[in-house]
Specification:
- This protein is α+β, with helices and mostly antiparallel strands and about 120 residues long.
- Strand 1 and strand 2 form a beta hairpin.
């Protein structure tokens, strides 16, 4: 049986494939810095998207998107700041925070799942 990290990578791969099927370009997977980590960074047209991937085996385990709590949102926002600074992304570039929720075999995309804190 795969460990949690391997499972996470597998569902992040599925999420990336799903986003690519929508025409998005994946820029980074598992982007890490001292502040934390973002599962996927992608371009949706001109919009830079920071996406968190969450998985639940079945509906009885709760909605995976609900697992992206305020603390996780704060971390993602901080990491996105670092990413934008390090890559010299202008302040006027459109950015968005999405959640890709995988429940069983179903994939749900929550655009603008939360806003910059």
């Amino acid at each position: 049986m795969a460990n949690q990290r391997e499972k996470g990578r597998e569902y992040e791969r599925k999420a990336a494939e799903y986003l690519e099927s929508l025409g998005w370009t994946i820029l980074e997977r598992n982007y890490r810095c001292r502040t934390g980590e973002i599962d996927l960074i992608a371009a949706d047209g001109d919009t830079l998207v920071f996406a968190e991937v969450k998985y639940r085996r079945r509906a009885g385990c709760g909605n995976p998107a609900e697992a992206v709590d305020g603390r996780k949102q704060y971390t993602i926002c901080r990491v996105s700041d670092y990413y934008r600074m390090k890559h010299q992304i202008p302040d006027n570039r459109s950015c968005r925070f999405d959640v890709v929720a995988i429940q069983g075999e179903d994939i749900f995309l929550y655009r603008n799942a939360f806003f910059y804190r």
